Automatic annotation (TrEMBL):
Organism: Streptomyces cinnabarinus
Name of the protein this chain belongs to: FAD-dependent oxidoreductase
Organismal lineage: Bacteria, Bacillati, Actinomycetota, Actinomycetes, Kitasatosporales
Domain of life from the UniProt record: Bacteria
Record field: transmembrane: 6-24
Obligatory cofactor(s): FAD
């Protein structure tokens, strides 16, 4: 299946962009055509969205420029439907794209639908525009000496709270979390993270569940009211309903269920990667991170290139190796991990951790650039003995 074979990649986030660029390099001289679809021409650095929320301006990266020289065609538009039987994707209301192979890389976004008031009164990091509006609101709140809440104490919530507190020292920032912030880290890294929250004057409401977001406050499940002139919501994720609506097999969260080669179990010509794929390995389920997403994109590009040439493929293997967390611009903590993301012995803090985290955040863009000409690997750990399985 080579000459004229058309591969459509849906979503030009971290994984879709990598898959498209690597595929172009891997399938050169095979006659394969590649089309990449994304709603905007700007590449969104989601890893830096908390910086936008704190008022920083990011460098603008244009997708057509990033694809220059690859031969990948870029379509600016939103996929609104997939017909897996006809093998077509509808873009917007009126454009139809036929495919032989589909790479589904639609990512995920923060879910504001589960708690009353979150959708109406909270901001998210779901787009540069929303994060930018939150930053504008912060400036007003800071001028009035008000309070801000960050709901969700996962790594994104911690990064956002510390970034905001560091750039607006006059603001009272409250981090509200059901679980302990940094709970997945080892004792020492977690202790360091809490000392940083303390140093930045962030009030932590740990073990607290948000019952309702109000226009000027957050109501907790135990009835307490936390003042909040601006609320940033980072708790919970949702995915696009497109796959489920198309009858592609999905799990209870709407992620595409894949086999060992990251192909849909119901439609093998559809490959799912990144946050939109339900990937199970011998040590457990992958959770949505760039760290795991880039290897899924790399693997899928290589797999499709092999299938196009009629070759066999080996199953996907991956293991986690770090939890990098920025604590504002001047501090960070890195917890190194075992393959299943539980803490290992090693951890890093301070200046070297800041440099490490900055390298992690900038490395996808470097990877795309070099992947036009060579096979750059994003895999640090294959997950050890646990992920060894026979070829598929
Ligand atoms: C503030 C923040 C910090 C983070 N920090 C880290 C970190 O330090 N390390 C880490 O590993 N992970 C981190 N993550 C998680 C990481 O950003 C995600 O796991 C990663 O972006 C997933 O990549 P993806 O390609 O699956 O999805 P995305 O990068 O979200 O890309 C999805 C793309 O699909 C497009 N799209 C959506 N719907 C459609 C449609 N219908 N049609 C066409 N295109 C569509 C979107 O516009 C987007 O461009 C962080 C996330 C946030 C929000």
């Amino acid at each position: 299946m080579s000459n004229g074979h058309h591969i459509v990649v849906l979503g030009a986030g971290y994984t879709g962009m990598f898959a498209a660029v690597r595929l172009a390099h891997r399938t050169r001289r095979t006659g394969v055509r590649i089309t990449l679809v994304n709603p905007t021409g700007r590449f969104v650095e989601r890893l830096r969205m908390h910086q936008v929320a704190a008022g920083q301006t990011l460098a603008e990266h244009r997708i057509p420029s990033m694809l220059a020289g690859t031969g990948v065609r870029f379509v600016e538009g939103t996929a609104t439907a997939i017909d897996p039987e006809a093998r077509t994707v509808t873009i917007g209301g009126d454009m139809s794209l036929g495919y032989d192979t589909l790479v589904y890389a639609l990512g995920s976004s923060t879910d504001t639908g589960k708690v009353p008031g979150a959708d109406a009164h909270a901001f998210t990091l779901n787009s540069i525009e929303i994060a930018g509006r939150f930053a504008e609101r912060l400036t007003e709140v800071a001028a009035a000496g008000g309070t801000v809440t960050v709901c969700g104490g996962g790594l994104t919530g911690v990064e956002a709270a510390t970034e905001i507190a560091e750039s607006h020292p006059g603001l009272q920032v409250t981090l509200i979390s059901q679980d302990e912030p940094g709970g997945m880290m080892g004792d020492r890294a977690r202790g360091y993270l809490h000392r940083a929250l303390d140093r930045l004057g962030i009030k932590v409401e740990s073990g607290a569940r948000v019952a309702k977001v109000l226009p000027e406050a957050v109501e907790l499940a135990d009835g307490r009211i936390v003042p909040s002139a601006a609320c940033l919501w980072t708790a919970g994720v949702k995915v696009s309903p497109l796959a489920a609506e198309a009858g592609i097999a999905t799990d209870e969260r709407g992620l595409i269920v894949v086999d060992g080669s990251l192909r849909s179990v119901s439609h093998p010509e559809i490959h799912a990667i990144g946050d939109a794929a339900a990937v199970r390995l011998a040590w457990g389920r992958i959770h949505g991170t760039c760290q795991s997403g880039l290897p899924t994109a790399q693997y899928t590009a290589d797999t499709i290139a092999r299938l196009v040439r009629g070759r066999t493929v080996k199953p996907f293997r991956f293991g986690y190796f770090h939890q990098p967390v920025s604590l504002g611009r001047r501090d960070a903590v890195i917890q190194f991990t075992k393959a299943d993301d539980t803490p290992a012995r090693w951890w890093l803090t301070g200046r070297s951790a800041v440099m490490y985290k900055e390298f992690v955040s900038g490395s996808p863009l470097l990877t795309y650039r070099f992947s036009k000409r060579m096979n750059v690997t994003t895999v640090v750990s294959k997950g050890g003995r646990a992920t060894r399985r026979p070829a598929v």
